[in-house]
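Lecture 7 notes: from sequence to structure.

We start with a single chain of 283 residues. Read the sequence below before looking at the structure.
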Amino acid sequence: MKPVSTTRNQAGFTIPEALAYVFVFTIMMGALTALLSSLFTSQAHPQVSYNGRIYEMAPSFTNLRQAIDLHAALATAIDQADSVVILGGSRSHPSLDPTGPSSALVTSFTPTALTAMVGADGFTAFSSWDQRQLNATQFSGNLTTGQGSADFTFLTVQGLSRITSIAQQRRFTMMANGQNVVLYEITHQAVDWSSGSAVLTVNATTGTTPTYFYRFYYLANEDTWSQAPGASHYWYRSDSTWNRNQEGPAKVVFADPYIIAGDDPTAQINSVSRFIYFVSHAQ
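Now the structure, written as tokens:
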């Protein structure tokens, strides 16, 4: 008589044998995945050193992760700000500085308050050009020289004077391994006022300032953008005779570390950074 039950399935394997095969297959796939992961992570990504800092060649996933953290913090600071001050870039004033590039603040600028704004006319908080004039004494000696249009400083301000963050972008050029390269450095320094006095927020990993940063580079012929990194100022009116100056919004483009901008100058469409802001000075 044929047994009522059997330990073999229709494929001819016993259940313990099938489970053993699945177990062995899982171990082998896990080992293969670990091997491939180790292989890719051990591959040296091209790097260059400039001013004692390391820049990684784009596209750089490491820098993309850092960029996401930086821009999340910057977006929060913008949302909570009463006004923003953008120094540098092009057209900081349509008649006094029609083309630029204007001077940005040096990257070592870390004051936490705009001292001249205390007790000042609140409407001057809503114009970067007015801020530049009003805080000329404080800014003097802290402005860049020989900068390009991609260099700018982005301050977020609460009230009239409390600086809550300082974002900076700088663009450099150099020769590396016989090739012209373009380097970008983006930093964000958060300022914490929750205790009633200003405290610079340090980087969680390094324990130093700036709070967030990313640094990367392109080959020079790849630094071609539909909208070039940098700041552009826009104006509603400018009439020196009537003394009627109304600064409008500003477009701020941060370089993107995970995009190859393109090396074809005849292309109809070039890559666009994902980190673009169109902000009013009055939030």
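Residues 47-279 form one domain. Keep this in mind for problem set 3.
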